[in-house]
Structures are given as structure tokens and as C-alpha cells.
Amino acid sequence: MTTLRTPDPPVAPPQAARDRRRDRPAGRRRGSQPEAFAFLTPWLLGAVALTVGPMVVSLYLSFTDYDMFTSPKWIGFGNFAHMFTGDDRYLQSVKVTLIYVLISVPLKLTVSLLVAMLLNRSRRGIGFYRAAFYAPSLLGASVAAALVWRALFMGGGPVNELLAFFGWHTPSWVDDPQFSLASIVLLGVWQFGAPMVIFLAGLKQIPAELHEAAAIDGAGALRRFRHITLPMLSPVIFFNLVMEAIHAFQAFTPAFVIGGGRGGPADADLFYTLYLFEVGFQDFRMGYASAMAWVLLAVIAVVTAIVFRTAKLWVFYDDAEDRK
Amino acid sequence: MTVLPRTARSIGWHVLCLVIVAVVLYPLVWLAFASVKPPDEILSRLSLLPTRFVFDGYTKGWEGAADVGFGRFFLNSFLVAGLSVAANVLSCSLAAYAFARLKFRFRGALFAFMITTLMLPYHVTLIPQYVIFQQAGLVNTFVPLILPKLLATEAFFVFLIVQFMRGIPRELDEAAIIDGCSVYRTFWHVVLPLSKPALVTTSIFTFIWTWNDFFTQMVYLNDTEKFTVPLGLRLFVDTSSQSNFGAMFAMSALALVPIVLFFLAFQRLLVEGVSTSGLKG
């Protein structure tokens, strides 16, 4: 996170740089201000009692059989072995989640970038459009929005009817194993506003002279997009990609609601977190649920690490020289 | 670039934008009308407008479930969201001030740790946290929903406020210190008032996220008495009979009203908050 250049830093860089230089030696050498810990106490308590402590316990639980009522029984790698060899529903949840992440994230980023480019000009009404496109990002995560979505995509609902009007007769999306996940993907894409706003801020940072110079040299719109917009925007794309992927791996509410609380038709909407909830809080197999949580953490960490690693191949930092 | 005259291009652009607006806002408009349609019309007629306006859904839905009215769910949601906002603003700004301005050992390491927790899936701490609250007899109360916020576990907001405080000229708090202000008073009278924009952003997002939160509330609240709005709406998830549609959409529409109002009141700030800090909606 710290390595990212956020599109519109709230801090004026020179001031921040001065601050950092000024207090680093003092902070390290001359010890602490006693007041600091008074300010930090709530956060430290939370970090120890609600983050680090529970993480250690959850790691331990992942190697046990634990139902909350009897004490945990150590079973070594049993939970992990069961996940990948004996639990078809687990594998199904992995499959569903991976498909969801792989389709919804690129789709959402593409839509948000295209709309951001559409809005990147100075015309009347920009504020209205920007706000209207952003609204679903705030509403979309709610149960209410998911209930609406489910009705829209039901058999005989508006989506069915509209597609039938154009000659495409689809089954009830929410009840069909093939279409059900697609409706959840679309619910995710509907919330394109948040990355769009970030893209828009990024686009505003690209100096207009670059486009003007390229246009004079005869570059068309597509080539300017490919050779100016994309590279200049790559840090923002990188940021949005990481955040959206982390987010998508943990999607829960839409899958719960649209899948009717039980994973949808033929477990087609059995998202990872949904299955984790079922295992932990309906079956009370808390050791297994902890193990699942750690696999999720590992997957998110690996995916993030891969994105960070490949970043130097495609993320372009304008200020590369003065970073040395 | 100048193939078309300016006005024609401008009109084309507005048409395109309005088409997208129509698609994006359609589900919300649809919901608003569905909530006042006769139940048998909700899915059977494509027209947005009802043949006659029916408010049965609102009266029926408001009765709630198991003798607990929906008004109670709203009250609970407002209580949880309100306390969360207060807890988050207080605890996150305290931690942020330490990170942004004070000197202490391991500051760099602790800050890096805080940033890492931004990416931590909530599920890794979920089960032990649940066991702790269960042992303390706090399951089925609002404590598990609010205590984490009182202890600044939402690193997003700590980070947001740190970033903002770093932008406040240091000369201001140095002047206060030289004039004899204690660190506490400098925080309270100088830095905190100057951080108001960040605190407002934190409040709005905390409110909306808590209002929408479903997972944690479902895990911790079991009694219908304690239900929040998302849990009240959950009762509609299993029922697919059309007779309930009126109540379901009426309550869904009501559930979105506070967010819509917040959005209309603060949309500039919200959108700017997102673009400067990368907060997700």
C-alpha cells in the first residue's frame, strides 16, 4: 500500500518529505514520548486482543477438530487434507469463487475505466453523472439491493422479459446453475462507481501536453490510449486491481441472498465465505472453518504477491528517476 | 477531432451518459415503483408504473416478524451504526495522531503492521473472536459489533486520518506546544478540529458500511428483538412466494432510504473521499 501512488495524494509531497526527514532520527534515537502510548492504547489493545491473538488461536484451531463445546482435538493437517481430497462442496466453493474473481474483477475494471474516460472532460453535468454512477457502490453491498437484484433476474422478471423481447429466451437466472453466478457477477459490475472515481482522479493527473504532442505527431485515439493513457494510468490500475481482487475473494451478501441462503441451484452460488459461514456457524466445525480462513488468507496473499511482483513489468512510475 | 460540430458532439455525449444513467439507476427506480405495486403486478407487468398505487407492502412489512416490528429493526440499526461512528471516529483519530505526529519506539513497524491488516481477510480472526465474545456472554448483544470499532480495528480509517493529519502544517501544532499546550490539548484543540474533513469522511463511510453490514450482524445477533435491518430483510430471503413481495420491496426501499439521504447530502465529499484515499464504497 505504501508503495502505491494514490491518484490525488491528500498530502503535498514536499511537506510530507520534510516531515519524514525531520522526525526520523529523533524518533529512533531519543526514545518515545510517554504520551504516545496513551493515544495508541485503544489501537494496541485491538491489535493484540482482536487481531494478533485471534490470528494465533485461529492458526492453532485450523489444526484441530473443534465444535466450541468440547475442547479442541489436535488432528494435524487433517482439515487441510480433507479440504482438497474429501470435500466436494469445498472444491465447488473454490471453483465458484475463482470464476467470480476472474470474471467480475476484469469486467468491473474495464467498465469503470471506459466510463471514467467518458467522463474525463470538462462539460456541464459531470458532477451529476459522476454521482449517479457512484451511487450503486454505496447501495450495492446491502441485502436490500441483492433482494432487488434477485427479483430483477427471476423467471418472468424484467431481465427475462427484456431479453425475450430481443428474441433471447433465458431461463430464470437465479434458479439456473449456468446463469445464477452470472447475475451475481453483474451485481458486482453494477458497483463500478468506486474504481471509476479513482480512475477519473488518475486520468486528471495525465498532462494534456502528452496527448497533444502525440496527436500532432499523428497518433490516433487508440494509439494514444495504448501508449499514453494506459502506461500513465498503470499505478492506478494496479491499485484498483489489488483492491478489487481482495474484495471479490470475500464477497458474501450477494451470494447469500441470490443463492437463497444455501448456495443457489446445484451450489452454483456457493461462494467461499458462504461455505465458511455454513461450516463454522451452522455445523459448528470451527476447526475446519479456521483452516478454510487460513487457506483464503494464503490465496489472497499469493495473488497479491503475484500482482506486486509482476507490477514492475507493467506499472510505470513517472517519477522513476527521482526516487533514487 | 473536429469531424462533428461542437454542439452535436456534446449532445451525443450527453445522450450516451444519460443512457448509462438509465441503466445504472434502473434497479433503484424499479424498486421504488415495485414497492407500491399490487403484489401480482410486480413481476407480471414490464411497465415501471403500477396500474394503481398500493401501500399494503409498507403496512404489512412494518409489522415485521415474530411480534417484533420493523421499526425496532431500524432502531437497532441506527443504534449500532451511530455507536460505531462515534467509536470509530474517536479511536481511529487517537491512533492516527500518534502515528502522524508522536515519537515512539517501533513506530515504523507498527505502522507497517497496521497497513498489512488492511489486506487481512476478516475471516482469519472471526472464529476466535466469536469464541471470546461467546465466553464473555456477549453474543446476542451489540458489543461484538461496536467494541472492535472502539479499539480501532478498522485500519482503513486510521490510515485515512493519518494521511490527512500529515498534510496539516506542523508549524501549527509546534506553535501550540511552544505556547505551553500539552500534547493532549494540542490534539484536541488544534489537530482534531483541523482534521474535520477526514473525520466526516470516516463518519459517513462507517455509517454506510455498518448499515449495510450483514455478515457480522448475522453471526452475532440471534434474537428477533436484536435484529437489525439487514437481518429483518433476511427473513424474506427464503420466502419466494409472491404474496410477500409487497412487504419485501417496501422494506428494501425503506432500508436504502438512509443511505440515499446520506448520499444526497454528502455526495461531493463521498466522491472526493474515494478519489483521494482509494476507499471502497
Query: In which range does the helix fraction of chain A lie?
Result: 55-70%
Strand content of chain B: under 5%
Helix content of chain B: over 70%
Radius of gyration of chain B: 24 Å
Q: Using DSSP, what is the number of strands of chain A?
A: 2
Distance between the termini of chain B: 35 Å
Low-confidence stretches of chain A: 1-29
- Count the beta strands of chain B: 0
The SS-based structural class of chain B is: mainly alpha
Q: What sequence of helices (H) and strands (E) makes up the elements of chain B?
A: HHHHHHHHHHHHH
User: What's the main sheet of chain A like?
Assistant: 2 strands, antiparallel
Classify the oligomer.
Answer: heterodimer
Q: Count the helices of chain A. How many?
A: 14
Strand order of the largest sheet of chain A: 1-2
- How far apart, in Å, are the first and last alpha carbons of chain A? 19 Å
Membrane topology (chain A): Multi-pass membrane protein
Family (chain A): Belongs to the binding-protein-dependent transport system permease family.
Pfam families (chain A): BPD_transp_1
Transmembrane segments (chain A): 37-63, 98-119, 131-152, 179-203, 232-252, 286-308
Description:
The complex is a heterodimer of chains A (324) and B (281). Chain A has 324 residues and is mainly alpha-helical. Chain A contains 14 helices and 2 strands; from the N terminus they run ααββαααααααααααα. Chain A has helices at 13-29, 34-61, 78-85, 88-119, 126-139, 143-152, 158-165, 177-190, 193-204, 208-216, 221-249, 253-258, 272-281, 286-314; strands spanning 64-65, 73-74. The longest helix of chain A has 32 residues, at 88-119. Mean pLDDT of chain A is 85; it is low at 1-29. Chain B has 281 residues and is mainly α. Chain B has 13 helices and no strands. Chain B has helices at residues 6-34, 56-62, 70-101, 107-117, 123-135, 143-150, 155-166, 170-178, 183-194, 196-212, 215-220, 229-238, 245-277. The model of chain B has no long low-confidence stretch (mean pLDDT 87). The chains are: A mainly alpha (324), B mainly alpha (281).
